[in-house]
Write a structure and sequence with these properties.
191 residues, four-stranded antiparallel β-sheet, 16 strands
Length: 191
C-alpha cells in the first residue's frame, strides 16, 4: 500500500483549467478574473520539487483545455474557438509569431488531443449534435477542418489509442470511433 506524496505546487490566484506536459515543460491556461484576458503559462518542471514559471502570454478569455505535440500547442475555449500556437521557444511564448491562428467550432470545447498531423476535438453542444471534429494541422497556421459524419449530443471527453478515438458522451456512454481514414470516420463500438 503506497501513499501519495505532493512534490511541489505552483500556486496561482486564478483557476488553472487544464495541463499539457511535454518534456520539461507544463503548459497551463489560467482563467484570470482581473482582466479581459486569460494567461497561457509555461512552467519548468525539470525539478518536480521546484516548479517555476518560464514564460507566459495573454490569451483570449475562457480557455478550457490545452494539448501539445512537438512545437504545436492547441487551446480550446468555452465558446468553441480553437487557438493554435507555435511553442518552439517555451521561454518566449509572449513574443511575436507565437499565435498562429484559430478556428471557430461552436459549443464549449470539452476536450482535444493532437495525434500526429491530426487534431481531434470534442465539444459540448447542448442545442444540437455537432460535437466531434477533426482538423488536419500538418500546416498549423492553416488548419483544415475535415468532414465528420459522427454526431454526439454532449461530448465531454476523449482519448486516442492508435486509430481509435474514445469519446465520452455523458449519459449516452463511451463510443469507439475508427479514425484510420480521418475523412471517413465511423463508430466501431459503444460501451
Amino acid at each position: 500500500d503506497s501513499e501519495w506524496q505532493i512534490l511541489d505546487t505552483y500556486s496561482t490566484t486564478d483557476p488553472v483549467m487544464s495541463v499539457a506536459v511535454q518534456g520539461r515543460e507544463a503548459y497551463i491556461p489560467v482563467c484570470r478574473s482581473d482582466t479581459f484576458f486569460d494567461t497561457l503559462k509555461v512552467l519548468n518542471i525539470t525539478d518536480t520539487e521546484d516548479i517555476s514559471q518560464l514564460s507566459s502570454r495573454n490569451s483570449q478569455t475562457n480557455l478550457t483545455v490545452v494539448d501539445i505535440e512537438g512545437d504545436v500547442l492547441v487551446a480550446g475555449r468555452n465558446d468553441g474557438q480553437v487557438l493554435i500556437y507555435n511553442v518552439s521557444k517555451p521561454t518566449a511564448i509572449g513574443g511575436a509569431g507565437v499565435y498562429l491562428g484559430g478556428s471557430i467550432l461552436g459549443g464549449e470545447i470539452a476536450d482535444l488531443q493532437i495525434q500526429g498531423r491530426f487534431l481531434y476535438c470534442l465539444c459540448y453542444m447542448p442545442t444540437d449534435s455537432r460535437g466531434f471534429r477533426i482538423w488536419d494541422i500538418e500546416d498549423p497556421a492553416n488548419p483544415i477542418l475535415l468532414p465528420s459524419t459522427i454526431t454526439f449530443t454532449q461530448g465531454l471527453g476523449l482519448d486516442t489509442e492508435g486509430d481509435i478515438v474514445y469519446l465520452a458522451d455523458g449519459l449516452a456512454g463511451v463510443f469507439a470511433v475508427n479514425v484510420s481514414n480521418p475523412t471517413s470516420v465511423f463508430t466501431e463500438g459503444h460501451l
